[in-house]
Amino acid sequence: MSGRLKRSYSLDELTALAPIDVTLSVTELPRFVEALNVPQLDNAQVRCRLEFDTGGEQKVRVRGQLAADVQTECQRCLGGLALSIDMPVDWRLPDDLEIDPAQLGRVEIRLLDWIEDDLQLGIPLFARHADEQCGGDLAKQYQADDTPPDTITPFDGLKDLFSKH
User: Fold this and answer.
1) Torsion angle of alpha carbons 128, 27, 85, 112, nearest 10°?
2) Secondary structure letter of residue 125 according to DSSP
3) What's the rounded Cα separation, in Å, for the pair 129 and 110?
4) pLDDT by 10s per residue, the chain, length 165
5) How far from chain centre, in Å, is Cα 82?
6) What is the chain's alpha carbon radius of gyration, rounded to the nearest angstrom?
7) CA 105 to CA 102: how far, in whole Å?
């Protein structure tokens, strides 16, 4: 299947789906765009390859790959940062989930939400440029230096007090 992906599918629709190989615009994934914290290029896309395995009508397992080339913010210099996300997916319904076979058409699986959630988890917690691109030498300016300061502290005379007794 290629083309558009619906936001949700019933469980019986998922069991009948052929493998999906689709490219989505990031505009279809607003929570993902919000998590990136940077306006996205108009051509930013997410590639989804998903295969559906039905070990039984109620035991749907989805495997595949998600890939996206998007923009985010460097946490060090706050400039734009190109980010490539490429991650495997392996989703399944809980084994103890009991669904009446007559109700399979009413159980809704929000497939785009699953995609969006996984992509958000693929965003690094500390996204940053390589050291040579930003902050490599700048970070060294803020590191502690081993030379003692020339200032007087409230504890300067403490050692002398203990040595007298």
Assistant:
1) 140
2) T
3) 34
4) 445 677 778 777 777 777 888 898 888 889 998 998 888 877 889 999 988 876 655 567 889 999 999 999 888 888 888 899 999 999 877 766 666 666 666 777 888 898 999 999 999 988 888 877 786 555 556 556 665 666 777 777 777 777 766
5) 14
6) 26
7) 8
Residue 122 identity (one-letter amino acid): G
What is the DSSP code (8-state) at residue 155?
A: T
Q: Of how many residues is the chain composed? A: 165
CB-side exposure of 3: number of CA atoms within 13 Å?
3
Residues 6+ apart with CB under 8 A from 18: 1
Structure tokens, 69:
């080339």
Element (H, E) at 137: helix 136-141
SS3 per residue for 72-121: EECCCCCCEEEEEEEEEEEEECCCCCCCCHHHCCCCEECHHHHHHHHHHH
Pairing mode, if any, of strands 60-73 and 45-54?
A: antiparallel
99 phi, psi to nearest 5 deg: -125, 135
- Whether residue 24 contacts residue 114, with contact meaning beta carbons closer than 8 Å, is answered with no
